[in-house]
Amino acid sequence: MSRIESIISKWYDNSMRNRACLSDRQGFSLIEMLIYISIFVAISAFLVSILIIFTQVHVRQTSINEVNDQISFVNNTVERLVRESSIIDMTSNVTTSTLTLRMASSTLDPTTIYLSDNMVYLQEGSYDPIPLTDSQIQVNDFSVTKYENPGGHAIVQVHITVSYNTESQRAKYKRTTRTAISRVTAATFDSSLLPNTGSTYDVGESGTAWRYGYFSSGVGVGAAPVAGTSIKTTDDIYISTSTAGIIFTKPDGTCIRLTFDNSDNVTTTPVSVG
Prior knowledge:
Shape: rod-shaped
Transmembrane segments: 33-54
Radius of gyration: 44 Å
Keywords: Membrane, Transmembrane, Transmembrane helix
Order of helices and strands: HEEEEEEEEEEEEEE
Structural class: alpha+beta
Strand order of the largest sheet: 1-3-4-5-6
Pfam family, one: N_methyl
InterPro entries: N_methyl_site
Strand content: 25-35%
Number of helices: 1
Number of strands: 14
Helix content: 25-40%
Largest sheet: 5 strands, antiparallel
Distance between the termini: 153 Å
């Protein structure tokens, strides 16, 4: 073989080897690209799943916070008003969706808290009702029951169920609370205490009588009081036991009780009063 042919043969062999190496390098780069793409896709999927989970948790927590905040606001408002009230104007042991309170201030009397169209409203006196909840939640149940507490103030039990107002199943949340609230002060009024009809209602009864009554002026029984006298009545005064009578204070400060014996004679007995 001539020298020229030998040179051409070597050049051809080198060219083929270079092509083979180049081909090998191109195949390796493609594999690397596929690996990088796979890693990128995996990381992206992981980040997206983390974002989805975070969003779901955030939405759920938002609904929980909203329900808890509004149900706490309603309960706190009811508790404050019950404690400030003079009378819980409800029938005992009867559950209703309206809480009626009699207040000391005539401008706030009566005060009612009631359920209407899945919202709780507060109305004080003649003022317009104001909502205690908004459209972000639904009040599924608001019921109150008054219980008498012999020897103490009346108690109101409040049962409320609230749910988050949404169509999303993941964001749905419902909570129910039941609380008992007692009045803490005696009944006070800044105006006359009048029944809504005459000669119908009583103050106390035989089984639950009042202990003492304090009046700064006259008392009229069947008639209007007269200035200068403590009691005026158009009927008899009945003393049901023979040992009881009328007690008078003498000028020296001592007291005597006047009674009658079986012969209609007046008898006097010294007594100590006070």
